[in-house]
Specification:
This is Methyltransferase type 11 domain-containing protein. The protein is of the alpha/beta class and 261 residues long. The protein has one domain (64-253): Rossmann fold (3-Layer(aba) Sandwich). 30% of the residues lie in helices and 21% in strands. The protein contains 8 helices and 7 strands, in the order H-H-H-H-E-E-H-E-E-H-E-H-H-E-E. The protein has helices at 18-29, 38-46, 53-57, 64-70, 110-123, 165-175, 195-206, 215-223, and strands at 78-82, 102-107, 129-133, 150-156, 176-187, 225-234, 245-253. It has a 7-stranded mixed sheet with strand order 3-2-1-4-5-7-6. The longest helix has 14 residues, at 110-123. It is globular and about 45 Å long. It starts with 17 loop residues before the first helix and ends in an 8-residue tail after the last strand. The model has no long low-confidence stretch (mean pLDDT 92).
Length: 261
């Protein structure tokens, strides 16, 4: 496999209109999140906004581009995008996506998986990209590659929505080959924030079952050897610019045979 030097990554900017933003904001603010299972709760939240998910979210998910830009992309390698939603992370590679021999996009939400499937089919990627409806915590999930065969596992704004997020990290560790890499980006809280701002963002995101934890970064650094860590503050559309939420992008390497979690 080649080095990462020839990787081509471009930022992904899907078009949006005020009317599409209004529909997404309405769904986010007034969503009737319900259900007995995590899958049912996710579906109740996303079903009315799945088709417009990317047009709004790309302007608030600031950690995606730095994560994709920093993560290794060995030619001929295998990439699993856990909690991959609509498959929008694939767009960052554009025509260079076929550098991978296999890509798996896994998500628990049927509506988002439908969008990802349509994307893959319309782009002509179906010969090497699989879209899987499944749980990131399921070690036996059909469609996931075998233990120790994967080059990169990514979680893009997914860990904060996975109740048993440590189990999801264990599953990623299991799939990775020795020397493989995990790439993660998400919202977080930081020591540099005031207590009030930290509490505000934690409370606000919890309304949509997104749980911000400082422990995520610390745990990733404990399980994997840190290769890249970037923390920043990002704005949200239609929100005063003084209100910026911290986010991070992390890339770590599997250097041990046994997961310490």
């Amino acid at each position: 496999m080649s080095s990462n030097d020839d990787k081509v990554v471009t930022d992904y900017h899907p078009p949006a209109t005020w009317s599409s933003d209004y529909k997404v904001l309405k769904s986010m603010i007034f969503a009737d999140v319900h259900g007995n299972t995590q899958q049912e709760r996710l579906e109740s939240f996303y079903v009315s906004q799945a088709d417009l998910y990317d047009s709004y979210r790309h302007r608030m998910l600031h950690g995606r581009f730095p994560m994709i830009n920093a993560m290794p992309a060995p030619r001929g390698g295998i990439w699993v995008d856990m909690g991959g939603g609509t498959g929008s992370n694939l767009e960052y590679f554009g025509n260079d996506l076929n550098r991978w021999s296999k890509v798996v996009v896994l998500d628990l939400c049927p509506s988002l998986v439908d969008v990802a499937t349509k994307r893959v089919n319309s782009k002509g990627w179906s010969n090497f990209v699989d879209v899987v409806l499944g749980d990131a915590c399921d070690f036996e999930c059909p469609g996931l590659p075998a233990t120790g065969t994967v080059d990169v596992v990514s979680f893009s704004y997914a860990l904060t929505m996975i109740p048993d997020w440590k189990k999801a990290i264990k599953n990623a560790f299991r799939m990775l080959k020795p020397g493989g890499h995990i790439a993660v980006c998400d919202f977080t809280v930081t020591e540099s924030q005031s207590y009030g701002m930290s509490a505000f963002w934690t409370w606000l995101f919890a309304h949509d079952h997104v749980h911000l934890k400082k422990e995520h970064i610390a745990t990733l650094g404990y399980v994997f050897e840190t290769k890249h860590l970037e923390v920043g503050f990002g704005e949200f559309p239609y929100v005063p610019s003084l209100l910026k939420c911290p986010y991070y992008s992390f890339v770590g390497q599997k250097v041990n045979n046994d997961c310490p979690l």
